[in-house]
Amino acid sequence: MSDADVPADGGGADVPADAGAGAGATGGGRARRRRGVTGTRAWVAAVFLLPALVLLGALVVYPIGFSVYRSLFDASGNGFVGLGNYGQMFSDDGIRTALRNNVVWVVVAPTVSTALGLIFAVLTERVRWGTAFKLVVFMPMAISMLAAGIIFRLVYDQDPQRGVANAVWVGVHDTFAAPAPFPGAKPRPNADLRPSGGGSFTTASVVRAGSPVKLPLVAVQPGDVRDAKQAVAAGPRPGLVTGTAWLDFTRGGGGRPNVIDPGERALAGLTVQAVRGGAVVASATTAADGTFALPAGKAVGARIRLPGADFAAAYNGVDWLGPALVTPAIIGSYVWMWAGFAMVLIAAGLAGVPRELLEAARVDGADEWQVFRRITVPLLAPVLVVVLVTLMINVLKIFDLVYIIAPGSSLRSANVLALQLFQSSFGTDVDEGLGSAIAVFLLLLVLPVMYVNLRRLRKERRR
Amino acid sequence: MTTVDGAVGAGGGAAGRRVAGRAVQRGGRGPLAGRLAARAGSGAVRVFLVLVALFWLMPSVGLLLSSLRSPAQIAESGWWQVFARPAQITFDNYGHLLSNGKVMGSLVTTAAITVPATVLVVVIGSLAGYAFAWMDFPGRDGWFMVVVGLLVVPVQVALIPVAKLFGAVGLFETTAGVVLFHTAFGLPFAVFLLRNFFAEIPRELLEAARLDGAGELRLFTRVVMPLGGPAIASLGIFQFLWVWNDMLIALIFADSGHPPITVALQQEVRQFGNNIDVLAPGAFLSMVVPLVVFFAFQRQFVSGVMAGAVK
């Protein structure tokens, strides 16, 4: 929230002219509103104004002129290039990315923040603890974009063990698509199992009645068998083909290959299929002791297959800060910071909406949605516009969040104008001409708001 | 707790609830069905708002809990594991940070930038605001228009020129330079806000003081400044938080050997991943002052924010 962000709306003090005039009527009459109290001499006024005007002149007004001038010269500052830097802004790939991202930012971030602010403001009016809610949502406004950036770097951490966004995402994903029980596991090399495409393994020999199938596996992640039971050799059972899947590895050594030694652990939850002529004819899941049973009628003469889904690598979530999603992800963190701002301003506007109007509509049979859509929103329109414009000006200059959240590898994809300006002026690709052109371009984009502010001020004066 | 609502809701909440309640009874449905529907509806609203609030809190809670775990635990599992194993909580990270001279020094630098930048904006802004509100001089309205026009000028436009200017006069990479930059860019809003507020002071008050023989300076310090208290407080809080939280200007203009906290932490972010035990408590430390100021002065902060945007 730069101080410079704020569209003047006659803000905080819309009354002065009238108040001054009202008081003045008793004193000096309306002709000269807000006359100096007792005809101050001009040099006194100059002394009061001097510090402000000197600082503004040297550090705000002069720089505007210098930037415009500097933007017409090349990187060295000696060669006049006219509007060349502006041309380069629209042809350079990196800057075009920045422009495109800025458009996305300016359209999406203010809209989403304002929409959420509106929803929150309307809904909090209906609960007693609305104030506490507002405090929670408004609080991020008080912290720095740097701190917010670090907070969201953590939220978006790729590793589902650390980043909460991916932890939730993977959790939801695995609820609908069960994760593989033993990612990365494979048969013991000299076992009867052979790779059969798609990560699956199939026995080389066919199943014979009364002889249990052995499925010895290795390379199981230690964490996946931490609580596993001792594996049990399946005995023959009438009418069924039985077998055991286990981790054929004895801790501390001494285990025999292809034999279920004491201490070797069962692999529960594996899908076991009987395959005949390429088609699955029966399927079972291994029990806690590693055993499984298939109907003999179907399985005898078939081969046993462990499908690839048993061993697929764990789903690792979304690459939030990868090139594709980095901008939406950072916009998410911005909305987290600024929805509270929109909410507070809209709530203030809402307090000014005449209750009788809403009630009259309800009496006339309008439901809550219609009241919201047809009355509340139109009455709030001026506030909504001010909030949107304020946020747009703010977003135009977005820098800190992008600089902090985007990892080095995605920085180019997340580029925005203010970041490019920083890089061009003080960072890696030094070209002050180009940097100045971007600065002037940003200034041009806010000129309409400046114009509206001044026109409103003049109108207030005339009133 | 009541201040956000007090400053903002102005009793709208209570009125809204009353109206909503009455409206339901008058609705087309039968009284019982209507009441049931209203209860279910407000139940849904409550559940929704609770979920949103938890969602909004989660990122900060994540940072806080991460800052309270050892580096090994941070590397191994998520902060939410703390709920299962509260014994993991340790203040070691903060201990290390507090004994780290560089971090503590950066907090001092931040304060050394923020306090003067806030005081200067308030003082210089008040002087100019008073002149614009109550003094008569040629071109007053024109000058004020210029100041209002500067409200929306992005800081970006001044970065290169001011860096050169400061370089020429020896202010580049100094605390004084950062303070001056923040003061200059805080001034348009300060002058705008204070001029409008001062102009509301009743003329009789100023004239009475004048008749008692008060000079312009005395009038300013004894009448205008005290009466302008609320606006000055809003402006001060606003500017304080803005400067404390700034990174961009400090990144360019601050002494890189003694950077403020935001820049010091930003340098750490480069190696994000293996230094969360430094970043998380550091970020929290940098948030302590703004959060205390925010909670202590919510009303002023909110009205400062609103002064900038809507009536």
UniProtKB/TrEMBL annotation, chain A:
Coarse class of the protein's main subcellular location: membrane
Domain annotation ABC transmembrane type-1: ranges: 99-453
Name recorded for this polypeptide: ABC transporter permease
InterPro entries per UniProt: MetI-like, MetI-like_sf, UgpAE/MalFG_permease
Family membership: Belongs to the binding-protein-dependent transport system permease family.
Top-level taxon of origin: Bacteria
Spans annotated as Disordered: 1-32
Transmembrane segments: 42-64, 103-123, 135-156, 335-353, 379-406, 434-454
Cellular compartment(s): Cell membrane
Membrane topology annotation: Multi-pass membrane protein
Keyword terms, alphabetized: Cell membrane, Membrane, Transmembrane, Transmembrane helix, Transport
Species name: Streptomyces albospinus
Biased composition (Low complexity): 1-20
TrEMBL record, chain B:
Keyword Hydrolase among record annotations: no
Record keywords: Cell membrane, Membrane, Transmembrane, Transmembrane helix, Transport
Its membrane topology: Multi-pass membrane protein
Membrane-crossing segments per the record: 36-58, 107-131, 143-163, 175-198, 219-244, 278-297
Primary localization class, coarse: membrane
UniProt-listed Pfam families: BPD_transp_1
PROSITE patterns per record: ABC_TM1 (PS50928)
CDD domains, per database record: TM_PBP2 (cd06261)
Domain ABC transmembrane type-1 intervals: 107-297
InterPro entries associated with the record: MetI-like, MetI-like_sf
Cellular location(s): Cell membrane
Similarity field: Belongs to the binding-protein-dependent transport system permease family.
Protein name: Sugar ABC transporter permease
